[in-house]
Design goal:
- The chain is mainly beta.
- It has one domain: Lipocalin (Beta Barrel).
- The protein is 13% helix and 45% strand.
- The protein has an eight-stranded antiparallel barrel.
- The longest helix has 12 residues.
- The protein is globular and about 50 Å long.
Length: 166
């Protein structure tokens, strides 16, 4: 029907209507499949959360996103009261979970998505732009960071593979 209306408008008015926007290929909910970090200087690889990890990243059509990554077998706190956790428990919980949300922009031609962070478990990311290269292959989404400085004095590129579930 839309196509017919466009043709009718062109025929009657002699003008072309703007082309419909391409659908955003990132819209949906994605489940984490793997996360690998590669050292820039020598190609050494590591699995930051090991093989037992899970996560979700969601992109909606209105431009909002959220991401969460966790190790699967996290140590529970001794107490059921979140505020009663011991410092060592809180530290371990912080180091085994990543979460942030905000808005996003996509440059499909360049294969870049930018996450504009509004809230994060890591407060230093709030107000930053987290740029990722992306590749889509079927129901698989690969997100790759630019080289990131690691506190041990070297840089790594992180590649996360996601599978579309919604």
């Amino acid at each position: 029907m839309k196509c017919m209306l466009r043709l009718l408008a062109v025929a009657m008015l002699g003008v072309a209507l703007p082309a419909a926007a391409e659908p955003n290929p990132l819209v949906g909910v994605w489940k984490l499949i793997s996360w690998e970090a590669t050292r820039v200087s020598n190609g050494d690889k590591r699995l930051p959360f090991g093989r037992s990890l899970d996560g979700r990243i969601s992109y909606n059509a209105s431009g909002h996103m959220s991401a969460q990554v966790t190790q699967i077998h996290r140590q529970p706190f001794v107490t059921d009261f979140m505020g009663g956790a011991r410092p060592d428990e809180m530290q371990l919980a912080f180091h085994t979970y990543i979460a942030y949300y905000g808005t996003y922009t996509v440059d499909a031609k360049e294969g870049i998505v930018v996450h504009h962070v509004e809230g994060s478990l890591f407060p230093n990311w709030v107000g930053t732009k987290q740029e990722r290269e992306f590749e889509l292959e079927g129901r698989r989404l690969s997100l790759r960071t630019p080289p990131m400085a690691i506190n041990k004095g070297y840089k790594e590129v992180h590649t996360l593979i996601w599978e579309k579930i919604e």
